[in-house]
Amino acid sequence: MRGLTEEQEYAEECREALRRMVSGARENVVVGSETWGDRYTAERLGHYLKTLARDIAEEGDNPPYFGLIQYDGNAGEHRGQSYYLGRRHISDAIGRPPMVIDWRAPVSTTFYQATANDSRGLATRRRFGWAANTLTSFEDEQLGSAQAEATGFGSELVRREIERARVGPMRDIVATIQPEQDEVVRTELEVSVCVQGAPGTGKTAVGLHRAAYLLYAHRGRLQRNGVLVLGPNRAFLHYISAVLPTLGEVDVDQTTVEEMLAGRIAVRATDSVAAAVVKHDGRMAEIIRRALYERISEPLEPIVVADSSYKWRVQQYELAEMVTEARAHATAYLMGRERVIARVVASLQRQAEARGQNCNGVWLRKMARAVTPAVDAVWPAVKAEEVLAEILGEHSRLSRAADGLLSPGEQDAIAWPQPRKAKTALWTLADAVLLDELSALLERGETYGHVIVDEAQDLSPMECRAIARRCEHGSVTVLGDLAQGTTPWAARTWADQLGHLGKPEAELVALTTGYRVPASVVELANRLLTALPVEVPQTTSFRTDGQLTITESDDIVDAVQRALPHEGSIGVIAADQRIAVLNNALQSAGIDTVAPGGDGRVTVVPASLAKGLEYDHVIAVEPAEIVEAEPRGLNRLYVILTRAVSRLDVLHTRPLPRELS
Ligand SMILES: Nc1ncnc2c1ncn2[C@@H]1O[C@H](COP(=O)(O)OP(=O)(O)OP(=O)(O)O)[C@@H](O)[C@H]1O
Fold first, then answer.
1. Confidence of residue 236 (pLDDT cuts 50, 70, 90)
2. Most CB atoms closer than 10 Å: which of 67, 198, 248, 364?
């Protein structure tokens, strides 16, 4: 195997080859569009090459590879072979073996899965250390050797990478994916998985790498209907936004559940907690369905259409049969209505043809227009907003639809004080969820090939249904931690949540090794865990470093000044109502602060936005206040304490919550 100088030369050769790939792709765009006979093929080829050139250029000057595997003499088709592994495939010339293989290729699996006791045919696994894109070191593991089996192997490079200080947005973990994480990443596309993972076990990282893996392994299928990544809020999306592009994947939709749902309306009001709890409840699905289908009525008269000197007729009982048939078979309300119109027109056509009339396309369209008002009388066309405005605004309609499902108190919680038209309604976020349900009953929407949903413990049953509709024909990766559930409707078991997501068969996987939070902080957070009403395994920390300080003080300036000399990011996290005071105090002392998602050294984070984020040094301000601020305050505190990568400083003047002591 190569020494360091030769490895450095090889890295340079790989970079050179990559540059040739980019310029070759750009050149071929021109040549392809000028010479390709068929325009469609030329366009497809051009698109592919442009995308390749853009992707490679966007990835920037990343190290060309991070690992090397060398197979032993008994490894079948790979016997004695060596492969370099990187973020993308690099080839020198057509017909020659690739210089670097994509980390997602099947042969790369052994790099992640081989252990001292199970070498998977590998003789050596080499990991490379890079400093500012210069290759500075490597580390070899002699797998399968008696010594490796006896002692196991702890990679210093992996440890350094996991323990490094965090600056800026989240980075990819391709070089150091751990075996249990790799299994989730490479689960096949057809299989839905649900990962219950303690804080910092890499759920988000695993989800993003799974998106990249699936796009590589099933590009053809996923290019048509795509991959959707759903996160809890904008700050979180900003935090994870760089990961997929560095992995070469720029065409993944990343959004929040709220944005996905609120797209169609302007949210102008906020529900009371009591109203939101009812609106997010799974029973609302049936209420909405009833209210919509209540509009379909028994026909009261036949349909009669005058056509030249004839009158065509569909009898009342025939129309009733058509309505019953469409209700039984149509998969959406508006589709059912179309089906009734089509059947009525077909009946008129039979009558006209029996009289020798020529029923061409123009005639059929004229008849469809003529019968529509009569069909509307029994099966009216409606808009989602109109139906919801009537459910919430008309007490009699709500009580009919909610009969036996909602108590009078629950109905009162969601009823508007007076009727309103859809156009003037003050819609809330929870209404957006209900409108999405209604729209899907009216017309089926588009679906994705795969949906990755993070912080899934916080989703309401109605939000889960909205996601389920978007992956009805695809699969999901559900990521979450029941202990971090903070919404009023947060899941207590994954079985319930997977049922709402329409994937009860999803494989449940537990990740318990934490890569973010140091052992001393995990120990503190685990004390809270026993007080939370959910059953989840405790975390163990991969990290031996880190520091926990508990200070009886409210001097935030002093706490931040003590943090500043250390390397890495600083997050000051406190109950939402305290944020303004903390910002003022810090800024008056000349310390610049930013909000989550901002670019700065010291971020002041409202407790409600901390989920999914991490900071090297966390200052958690007044835990008692965080706990009191909301019904699931203890869960919130658990989230906040586990944001710390290297140091956690708990500042308090009031007694700590007894669950922490
Ligand atoms: N195999 C790994 N190698 C290097 N770093 C890792 C690895 N796994 C996780 N990490 C790092 O650990 C940190 C936590 O990962 P991540 O945010 O994905 O965890 P999580 O389970 O989603 O956490 P939480 O539930 O607390 O939000 C991140 O900085 C991530 O890059």
1. confident
2. 198
Range scoring the smallest mean pLDDT among 22-26, 391-395, 643-647: 22-26
Q: Model confidence over 559-607: pLDDT tens digits? A: 999 999 998 999 999 999 999 999 999 999 999 999 998 889 999 999 9
Q: Which of 489, 512, 535 is the last residue of a domain?
A: 512
Q: Are residues 541 and 628 in the same domain?
A: yes
Same domain, 126 and 187: no
Asked whether 528 and 659 are in contact (CB, 8 A), the reply is yes
Rounded to whole angstroms, the Cα distance separating 179 from 173 reads 12
pLDDT value at 540 more than 90: no
Q: What share of the chain is helix, strand, coil (3-state, %, to 5)?
A: 50, 15, 35
Do 543 and 506 share a structural domain? no
Average pLDDT over residues 210-215: 92
CA of 623 to the centre of ligand 1 (A): 24
Mean pLDDT for the chain? Answer: 90
Is residue 18 domain-shared with residue 117, that is, in the same domain? yes
Q: Is residue 289 part of a domain?
A: no
Which of 320, 343, 377 is the endpoint of a domain? 377
Ligand 1 centroid to residue 641 C-alpha, Å: 15
Tell whether ligand 1 has an atom less than 6 A from the beta carbon of residue 480. Answer: no
Between 341 and 359, name the one with better pLDDT. Answer: 341
Nearest CA to 640 among 587, 553, 574?
574
Mean pLDDT across the stretch 49-72? 75
Distance from residue 173's CA to the centre of ligand 1 (Å): 9
- Residues 6 or more apart whose CB falls under 8 angstroms from that of 35 comprise none
Closest Cα to residue 434, out of 276, 273, 293? 276
Res 38 pLDDT > 60: no
Question: Does residue 60 carry a pLDDT above 60?
Answer: no
Beta strands in 575-623 (DSSP E): 602-606, 615-621
> Do 114 and 203 belong together in one domain?
no
Look at residue 152 and tell me whether its pLDDT is greater than 50.
Answer: no
Q: What is the value of pTM for the model shown?
A: 0.89
Rounded distance between C-alpha atoms, residue 657 and residue 496, angstroms: 30
Element (H, E) at 536: none
**25 with 151, same domain?**
yes
Q: How many folded domains does the chain comprise?
A: 4
Give the residue, out of 103, 112, 158, 162, with the most ligand 1 atoms within 8 A of its beta carbon, to mutate for a pocket test.
162
Residue 392 in 3-state DSSP?
helix
| Domain assignment of residue 372, given as a range | 297-377
Q: Are strands 615-621 and 570-574 parallel, antiparallel or unpaired?
A: parallel
